[in-house]
Amino acid sequence: MKRRLLIVDDDREATRLLANQLAGSQLIEICGEAATVDEAWAKLQQSRPDLVLLGGVKETERGVLCQQFRLAFPHLSFIAACSANELVWEPFFRNLGIWVIAKPVQSGQVEALAMMAQSPGLDARIPAQPPQHFPKEQQGGMIDPQDQFAEPSPAFNGQTKAGIKHLITVYGPKGGVGKTFISRELAIFFSTQKKEGRPLKVLAVDFNLDLGTFATTLNLPRTPNLFTWVQDLDSQLHAFAQKRGLDPYAVRQKEWQELASVLPLSPQQIEKYVVEHTESGLGVLTSPRDIRQSFEIRDYHLYLILETLKQSSYDVILIDTAPDTTDATIQALFFAEHVVMVGTPVVDSIENIQRLLKLLREAEYPEERIQVCMNRLQRKEMFTLEEIRAYFQLHPSKRIFSIPDDGEVKKSINTGVPVMMQAGRSAAREAIVTLGKALFPVDEETKKPAIKGKQSEKPSLLRWLWG
Ligand SMILES: Nc1ncnc2c1ncn2[C@@H]1O[C@H](COP(=O)(O)OP(=O)(O)OP(=O)(O)O)[C@@H](O)[C@H]1O
Ligand SMILES: [Mg+2]
Predict the structure, then answer these.
(1) pTM to 2 decimals?
(2) For a tag site, which of 102, 173, 218, 259 has the least CB within 10 Å?
(3) CA-based angle 413:464:186, to the nearest 5?
(4) Residue 282: enclosing H or E segment and its boundaries?
(5) How far apart are CA 392 and CA 387, in angstroms?
(6) Confidence of residue 2 (pLDDT cuts 50, 70, 90)
(7) What is the reported pLDDT for 349?
(8) CB of 131 within 8 A of CB of 151?
(9) Backbone angles phi and psi of 82, in degrees to 5
């Protein structure tokens, strides 16, 4: 049976060209064309399509449109046709469960996607799975949103599954602004806290896959690490493929993704891959030892790791990221309940945060999840926090967190002793505590950490200044 396609595009010429190309198709029947949102709604009701191709409608965003359509017609599959410069939205469309293809649209691409949506390859052999967020796999101009997910990921749409943990991603679109420092301090802070009388179980994850240094900043060994987990996942996927009568050496990348989406997760196994920071009790999932190992980590590995972490027994999970927009980082942003967006009060860092905020806003990323944190503030800065807030167009109720520039930080990184565990004065510590409490309220009474260094009762002038 032919799949019924509705084309929504205000470029009537592009619609006509595609309609001509698909005129003789054995697989697709065009059941409607719409150039406005109102027309699209009318056609959805009248012609009951299976598939909607979203070209572009000036009056709205495609992500919003897709969500609205889906609410009324949950069975629909969506394809976004993007021009070369719109392809930057591809990860966000994928997170909304929208296929992405490049313009000019080729009828063969639409036919192939229609077929995949109808009979998704392995699905006949693999039991059905609830829709899921999934990373990209680009194949010759067609970008696969990981077919199974017809709904936005739970992480994206704010729904919470039972047992979901507090996942906080520390990100900043510029290198060296203090992401690792802040992740480490927040992780140590939470490890020394209690919630409802119970000590928190905390995990820090180094998602800076190639050049991560989180372990170094706590004087921890790098084995086991994330790659150890990836190797185990590969063994499990191989066995899983074999059980389904597939030859693991003939399985293609896309099929691995499909297999990964139904692989049973083992949250109880996580601790095998975690190194413990004994002084605080913090668990650390470190990045691989060797840069080359990071090249072998695929998007579906990261997806499996993040999904497993969400089902783990950790109360708080901190993810340190790289200053990039790779899939590892984008997935860490979309899986998180909170994002700490770190920058320094310098134009290049501010500019990049603004660009990232714009990107996330356009993708309808829930902005309430983002906490902006300006690090390394000095007493006199060229830009005030108010000016920075105005530049970012933050909601007036939104607070910008700040962490002062503190001479102790460098020493604490060099020695591997977090400022959170030092007894001496540190201007940065209170600022981190304030940020931590805003992210995840904890009990007033804390767990006793193994404090290092000398105790000091002397009030700190800097702490007072920055408090
Ligand atoms: N509040 C601070 N006060 C003083 N120095 C700081 C502060 N925060 C960070 N630094 C300094 O900045 C350096 C870089 O910090 P860090 O490694 O955390 O940045 P990053 O954003 O994780 O970098 P990358 O992008 O390379 O991962 C640290 O080694 C430390 O010396
Ligand atoms: Mg770092």
Answers:
(1) 0.68
(2) 102
(3) 35
(4) strand 282-285
(5) 9
(6) confident
(7) 95
(8) yes
(9) -115, 140
Which range has the top average pLDDT, 54-68, 85-99, 236-250, 356-370? 236-250
Give the integer Cα–Cα distance in Å for 465 and 462. 5
pLDDT number for residue 121: 37
Q: Given ligand 1 and candidates 171, 179, 181, 405, which is best to mutate, with the most ligand atoms within 8 Å of its CB?
A: 181
Q: Say which amino acid occupies 313.
A: S
pLDDT tens-place string over residues 358-412 = 988 888 888 889 999 999 999 888 888 888 988 999 887 889 999 999 999 999 9
Query: What confidence tens digit (pLDDT) does each residue in 253-291 have?
Result: 888 988 998 899 999 999 999 999 999 999 999 999 999
Q: Is 128 exposed, middle or buried (0-12, 13-18, 19+ CB in 10 A)?
A: exposed
- The CA distance from 423 to 417, in Å, is 11
Using only the alpha carbons of the chain, give its radius of gyration: 24
Q: What is the DSSP string of 78-105?
A: EEEEE-GGGGGGHHHHHHTT-EEEESSP
Cα of 195 vs centre of ligand 1, distance in Å, is 29
Q: Is the CB of 177 under 6 A from ligand 1?
A: yes
Asked if pLDDT for residue 177 goes beyond 90, the answer is: yes
Q: Is 176 in the pocket of ligand 1 (CB under 6 A)?
A: yes
Q: From ligand 2's centre to the CA of 171, what distance in Å? A: 9
Phi/psi of residue 357, nearest 5 degrees: -60, -40
- For CATH 3.40.50.2300, list the domain ranges present in the chain: 3-151
- 304: closest CA among 366, 251, 248, 235? 235
- Name which CATH class applies to 157-226+264-466: alpha beta
The closest of 197, 203, 199, 190 to 433, measured between CA atoms, is 190
Domain 3-151: which CATH class? alpha beta
Of 180, 186, 206, 208, the residue with max ligand 1 atoms within 8 A of its CB, to mutate for a pocket test, comes to: 180
CA-nearest residue, atom 30 of ligand 1: 410
Give the C-alpha separation, 302 to 134, whole Å: 10
Give the separation between CA 70 and CA 18, rounded to whole angstroms: 24
Residue 407 CA, closest ligand 1 atom number: 4
Does the CB atom of residue 409 touch ligand 1 within 6 A?
Answer: yes
d(CA 230, CA 450): 33
422 φ, ψ (degrees, to nearest 5)? -100, 145
Which ranges in the chain are annotated with CATH 3.40.50.300? Answer: 157-226+264-466
Taking Cα atoms as reference points, which of 119, 122, 147, 143 lies closest to residue 132? 147
- Give the C-alpha separation, 58 to 45, whole Å: 22
Q: Rounded CA gap, 258 and 226, in Å?
A: 21
Pairing status of strand 275-277 against strand 282-285: antiparallel
